[in-house]
Design a protein that fits this description.
With 44 residues, this protein is mainly alpha-helical. The chain has one domain. Helices cover 50% and strands 9% of the residues. The protein has two helices and two strands; from the N terminus they run H-H-E-E. It has a two-stranded antiparallel sheet with strand order 1-2. Helix 1 runs antiparallel to helix 2 (19-26). The longest helix has 14 residues, at 3-16. It starts with a helix and ends with a strand. The model has no long low-confidence stretch (mean pLDDT 85).
């Protein structure tokens, strides 16, 4: 997953969720790494 996509998703969630919920559940999550392979991609 690109860092830009993760950032945009976080911004949208921050706008929709109460601040405390966002800071508790979303902010601590790291962006997933994605690698390309013959099957179209894999989250690592």
């Amino acid at each position: 997953m690109s860092a830009d996509l993760w950032q945009r998703g976080c911004e949208r969630l921050a706008a929709e969720l109460p601040e405390q919920q966002f800071n508790t559940w979303i902010r601590p999550l790291p962006a997933a790494d994605v690698s390309s392979d013959a099957e179209g991609g894999a989250v690592v």
